[in-house]
Design a protein that fits this description.
Blueprint: H1 2-9, H2 14-41, H3 46-66, E1 73-74, H4 76-92, H5 95-99, H6 105-116, H7 132-157, E2 175-176, H8 177-204, H9 209-220, H10 237-250, H11 254-257, H12 260-263, H13 266-269, H14 272-295, H15 300-315, H16 330-342, H17 355-371, E3 383-384, E4 387-388, H18 391-417, H19 422-433, H20 449-463, H21 467-472
Antiparallel strand pairs: 1-2, 3-4
């Protein structure tokens, strides 16, 4: 912790940061070319020309900036800062293109943030009448937003120790660029393979090619954008099952898949966080099925099917739904909120506070109870899955939980001051902060602009796990002692 504090006390180096921003802008420019090509062969809508102009501008600005970074290491606060800026700049550059297809600026910002953060909340309606290239762009933003958090953030912020818990160690040490690149490359390969399998499986399940592509991209990114106002309810049952399975796959830590060829299924099933994910999905689904069958007119078979889809969607923070969440009993909505808040595995595309932090918290409670029945001199270590949880990791988990709860309470307070119903307001705030995308009916075209902005802030805080955005606004990040070496 002292080492982490020391690095945060050193201001970011402008040359390094500008170089990283340049690389980010060039990456966004390249990503913008794909929807331009899709628009070229489909709609030729105004979106195409604005996307093309935006990509050209980003590439022109990013190329000279990228040449500024020649250093081999990145400070912890520099990694946090560029991560926070990435998830602000990525949706920001999409606002102008979306305005060109008659979307209001606030709604364009909301849609872009929801896409890049893989949330899936939307204020737009009449999706069936929207241009094809726009529907693709939404799914595309969720796909590369999921890749960004899975590869870019994990590679830059986290240290990686083979054979130990890898994805929760914000130790504050400098990271070698070579190591970050190698890890990002491995995650990208896994992500690409899962994407190809997901789109092919969705197509084989009976979806049209374009529908399979958009829903497959959204499922891999655990995003939840669909091409219908009824979400995935109009899709064939086989397609719903395939997409739900893809969501579960994407909610597992992506680096673990790279270990499958060498270690086999134990690479996944041996991880306590993966086992916790399956247990949480089954528990959530069972509770939802029981509540819906008891309080509604649904037959048990339908209640179980809908409960399973919603349970997977909530626990993986995807946002796909075959039912109207607003019509569910309050008890079912509460179960969904808890599930969304917990989320999936670290290093995956899922949101929430992550299961590993819940396991750490439960283990802390267990150790506290054990201390009451043991000698004062007894040494009780906090372990999860056989790995010792370091004090820094415990402090980091508790700090994040505290910040997360504070964001939820403040955002909920704004909704209440605006006269919104308490239960539905809390649901929307939890869904946005968890990057889940399920809605209790408040998020829509008629929502007040202030509340739309609150939810976009919640989505950003949830996706970068709060600390990165706080570092951006932390004064010593910009003013203070700097390292003399690059």
């Amino acid at each position: 912790m002292k080492q982490a504090a020391a690095y945060l006390m050193r201001a970011v180096r402008p040359r390094i940061l500008l170089g990283l921003i340049g690389r980010l802008l060039m990456t966004l420019a390249a990503l913008g070319v794909v929807p331009v090509l899709v628009s070229l062969v489909t709609d030729h809508s105004p979106l195409m020309w604005r996307l093309a102009a935006t990509s050209a501008l980003l590439g022109g600005v990013g190329w000279p900036l990228a040449r500024l970074h020649r250093g081999a290491d990145i400070q912890w606060n520099e990694a946090l800062t560029i991560t926070g800026l990435a998830f602000v700049l990525a949706p920001l550059v999409m606002v102008w293109p979306l305005i060109g297809i008659a979307i209001a600026p606030v709604d364009a910002w909301f849609e872009s943030v929801s896409g890049v953060t893989t949330t899936g909340l939307t204020t737009l309606r009449d999706m069936a009448e929207r241009p094809t290239d726009f529907l693709f762009l939404r799914a595309w933003m969720q796909w590369y937003g999921g890749l960004g958090i899975a590869a870019f953030t994990v590679a830059l912020i986290m240290r990686h120790h083979a054979g130990a818990r890898r994805l929760l160690e914000t130790t504050g040490e400098s990271l070698t660029e070579a190591g970050a690149r190698a890890h990002a490359r491995s995650v990208f390969v896994v992500y690409a393979v899962i994407t190809l399998i997901a789109v092919a499986a969705a197509w084989a399940s009976g979806l049209a090619p374009f529908s399979a592509l958009t829903h497959g991209l959204a499922a891999v990114g655990t995003g939840g954008f669909a091409t219908s106002d009824q979400n995935i309810a109009p899709l064939p049952p086989a397609a719903v099952a395939v997409l739900s399975l893809v969501c579960v796959v994407a909610a597992i830590s992506l680096p673990l898949y790279a270990r499958l060829p060498r270690h086999g299924p134990r690479a996944l099933l041996g991880e306590p966080e993966v086992r916790a994910l399956f247990i949480a999905i089954l528990t959530t689904s069972a509770l939802l099925a029981a509540i819906n069958a008891t309080h509604g007119d649904l037959a048990w078979r339908s209640a179980v099917a809908d409960g399973l889809v919603l349970g997977v969607s909530a626990q993986t923070d995807t946002g796909f739904s075959t039912t109207d969440v607003a019509a569910l009993p309050p008890a079912a909505q509460l179960v969904l909120m808890v599930s969304m808040a917990i989320g999936g595995c670290t290093g995956s595309t899922a949101g929430g506070i992550k299961l590993i932090r819940l396991l750490i918290l439960l283990r802390l409670i267990q150790v506290a109870l054990q201390r009451t029945a043991t000698s004062e001199r007894a040494v009780l270590e906090v372990r999860v899955g056989g790995d010792r949880v370091e004090p820094d990791m415990i402090a980091s988990a508790l700090q994040l939980l505290g910040l997360w709860a504070l964001v939820l309470l403040l955002s909920w307070l704004v909704f209440l001051v605006q006269g919104q119903p308490p239960m539905a307001s809390l649901f929307e705030v939890v869904s946005a902060t968890s990057n889940a995308g399920l809605s209790a009916g408040l998020t829509g075209p008629d929502m007040a602009p202030l509340l739309k902005l609150v939810l976009t802030v919640d989505m950003l805080f949830g996706r970068v796990e709060i600390l990165a955005l706080l570092v951006v606004f932390y004064l010593p990040t910009w003013i203070g002692r700097r390292r003399t070496s690059p």
